[in-house]
């Protein structure tokens, strides 16, 4: 596809397990006339439940490389499947790996090279993409605020919510989880002020993402089905590209949550001392 056909924002056709869909994208800077390879940023959160907006600060890198952001299927400006809702089995890691690969092919990056920066759930997606597909022109991965195993992630959340820093109603709401969704989301707002984004007041992008409301279909389905028991610990030796790991000192992704990633052959780990789960 000629470079001139790529608009700064648009929609990419995608077959979501046989269902017609569209993935919304945003390209920051010139996709074909920069000095360094493009960076694709798959968003989180809650597997997945946010959108591209909070990753817009990655645009600060656009002086030398294009930045490609997108809303994953079921989120924000991309196609939703909530009315009527799809069964839980529709929402799989394979679906989102296929969607990411569709992104790469649409822009012709499988022929010229690119990097990935996956945040939170986006890290799971980027890691699965690497170990499942071993894409030949993937130059490197940034795994930001990540997890290696759902049990470690659960332990971290339990530790952080039970250390008496939070009022009883917050602790109760977090323990109830998706079973009492409204109380859970209210409790999450308070939790996120400490362990997601410590800036006050929060930017409008972060406030919109972490606040109440929005379509929770994808998050509920992934967390109650596809991501239960997820782990990549036994597959880390399958990483073939250089990997940068990022977490924050106040992060939900505590050091023990991401420690197993030391098994990657080419890896560097940086902790931001004044950050939590959203260092960007």
The coarse silhouette is globular
Largest sheet: 8 strands, mixed
Mean pLDDT: 90
Kindly give the count of domains: 1
CATH architecture classification name: 3-Layer(aba) Sandwich
Global Rg: 18 Å
Name the beta content range. Answer: 15-25%
> How many distinct helices?
8
Strands of the widest sheet, in order across it, are 1-2-4-3-5-6-7-8
Distance between the termini: 32 Å
Q: For this structure, what is the CATH homologous superfamily? A: Alpha/Beta hydrolase fold, catalytic domain
Helix content: 25-40%
Structural class: alpha/beta
Low-confidence stretches: none
* Series of H and E elements: EEEEHEHEHHHHHEHE
- The tally of beta strands, per DSSP, is 8
Quick one: CATH class? Alpha Beta
CATH topology: Rossmann fold
Organism: Mycena albidolilacea
Protein name: Proline iminopeptidase
InterPro entries: AB_hydrolase_fold
Write the layout of secondary structure elements.
Blueprint: E1 9-16, E2 19-28, E3 39-41, E4 67-70, H1 93-106, E5 114-119, H2 121-133, E6 138-144, H3 150-161, H4 168-176, H5 181-195, H6 204-210, H7 217-226, E7 243-248, H8 255-258, E8 267-272
Parallel strand pairs: 3-4, 3-5, 5-6, 6-7, 7-8
Antiparallel strand pairs: 1-2, 2-4
Describe the fold and architecture:
The protein is an alpha/beta fold. It has a single domain (3-272), classed as 3-Layer(aba) Sandwich (Rossmann fold). Helix content is 30%, strand content 18%. The protein has eight helices and eight strands. The chain has helices spanning 93-106, 121-133, 150-161, 168-176, 181-195, 204-210, 217-226, 255-258, and strands at 9-16, 19-28, 39-41, 67-70, 114-119, 138-144, 243-248, 267-272. Strands 1-2-4-3-5-6-7-8 form an eight-stranded mixed sheet. Helix 1 packs across helix 2 and helix 4 packs across helix 5. It is globular and about 55 Å long. The mean pLDDT is 90.
